[in-house]
Amino acid sequence: MPETLMQNVHAPDFSLPADNGEEIALSDFRGQNPVLLFFYPGDFTPVCTAEVCAFRDDYDHFKARNIAILGISADPPERHRRFASECRVPFRLLSDTKLEVAKAYGASGLLGVRRAYFLIGIDGMLLWQHAELFPIFKLSNTRILEAIDAHISPEERGRHSGNGGG
Prior knowledge:
Low-confidence stretches: 161-166
Radius of gyration: 14 Å
CATH superfamily: Glutaredoxin
Order of helices and strands: EEEHHEHEHEEEEHH
Strand order of the largest sheet: 5-4-3-8-9
Oligomer: single chain
CATH topology: Glutaredoxin
Number of strands: 9
CATH class: Alpha Beta
Largest sheet: 5 strands, mixed
C-alpha cells in the first residue's frame, strides 16, 4: 500500500457525497462514534458485493459496538444508490470519484481504489489499518471485530449516540 498512514495520528478529515444524497464528513462522527472506513474497488463486482453484504449481515455486531461503517469507492452516488438498494445496505456508501480521499489514506492504486480498512476512534485518531495486496481478497469481519475490540475501549463501544453509522 503506498504511503500508509501512521497510527495514533489524526485521520485525514474529508467530506464526500453519500448514496442517500447527503454530504458526509468524517468529522461528523467525532465525539460520537468510532468509525470503520473501508475502501473497495467498485459496486456490483463479485468480491466487493460479497464484502458489502458481509458487513450488512454482521451489521448488528458493529452497531452493538457503536461503530459507524462508511464504505468508499470511486463510483458515483447514483451507482451507490442502486447498489445500496439492491444489497439492502444499512450504512452509507461514499463517492470518492477524484480519488482524493483514497490518496490521502494510501488506498489508491493503479486500477483505482484498493481494498483497505481504517479504524478511527471517537477522537479522530487512526487506531488500526489493514490493506489487501490483491483486490480479490477481503478481510473477514471476525478479524475486523477483533481489531475493534482490541483498539476501542469498552466505554467507547458502550456509547449509543444514535449515530451508529446508518
